[in-house]
Amino acid sequence: MTAVSTEGLDPLYDAARDGEPVLLSVDTARRIAREDLDDCAKADAHSLGAMVRAAATLHYRLRSLLAALNAEEGRTL
Whole-structure pTM over 0.85, yes or no? Predict the structure, then answer.
């Protein structure tokens, strides 16, 4: 297996740059997460751009869903 260097690459998420997601209700966050999951499942696996967009979309959506669940439970991220 070939090692891949991550030097010089930007992470998907940087708290200083990106902040926290908009707080949604759990039902809304769940619905949007399902929609995005369905959309990302159709992305072209051979397209780097499509895979980066899918990864960023799913990352943000998961953060949003966790924020909604944590808010409902009285927790923080």
Answer: no
In this structure, the dihedral spanned by the alpha carbons of residues 13, 76, 57 and 15, taken in order and rounded to 10 degrees, is -20
Report the Cα 14 to chain-centroid distance in Å: 12
Distance, CA of 22 to CA of 30 (rounded, Å): 14
Instruction: Classify 21 as helix, strand or coil.
Output: coil
Angle value at C-alpha 43, between 30 and 45, nearest 5 degrees: 125
Q: What is the pLDDT along the chain (77 residues), one digit of tens a residue?
A: 667 667 777 887 888 888 888 899 999 999 999 999 999 999 999 999 999 999 999 999 999 999 999 999 988 75
Helix 26-41 with 48-73: angle, nearest 10 deg: 160
Q: How many CB atoms lie within 10 A of CB 45?
A: 7
